[in-house]
Amino acid sequence: MQIHPGTLNRFINAEYVFERVKGCFSDFQTALDTINDQRHRSQVKGIVSECVERGQFTKIRYGSVVIGLRLLLVMPQEESAKGVVVCTLEEPQFEAHKPILGSFTFNGGGYTDIEHEEGADRIHMEQNAFWIILEFLSMALGRPIPADQTQP
Which of 10, 123, 134, 145 has the most CB atoms less than 10 A away? Predict the structure, then answer.
């Protein structure tokens, strides 16, 4: 370990960024809440969003599958602070731990590192919340059931 003189400034900046990141995640949760309100108008009616902890954790249910989206605040060395959303398979749970389905990183403006088509706008987590959820649900539904769970 080495003491770096710029560490204090990194933490001061990180606090500012973390507040913005938490606000972006909260806006993402609000966008997901509208799925519940507009379900009757949607082509996919079975998706239900539940904000478990504002600014921290949300669950999404579709049929027998539940995924969880948790905000992590990270500050990699030599980089700016940012947010990471980690998606886990909450239900059904066949393993001792909750498998990670995927994750994405985003900045204080809500723009993600999710791949997008050449020439298309970057993916914004609030504006594209429904599409992000569909992709994670697709991952969850596509997971094979462990072989030892299929035997009677």
Answer: 123
For residue range 77-110, list pLDDT tens digits in order: 777 788 999 999 998 877 778 899 999 999 889 9
Q: Which of 105, 113, 82, 111 is nearest to 13 (CA)?
A: 82
In a domain, 60, yes or no: yes
Q: How far apart are CA 71 and CA 58, in angstroms?
A: 9
Give the pTM: 0.84
Quick one: pLDDT at residue 146? 63
Question: Residue 112 carries which DSSP code?
Answer: B
Q: Is residue 151 part of a domain?
A: no
Distance between CA atoms of residues 9 and 69, nearest Å? 30
Q: Which residues contact 132 (CB under 8 A, 6 or more apart)?
A: 104, 112, 114, 123, 125
The answer as to whether 152 is a domain residue is: no
What are the structure tokens assigned to 35, written together? Answer: 């799925």
Strand partners, 71: 85
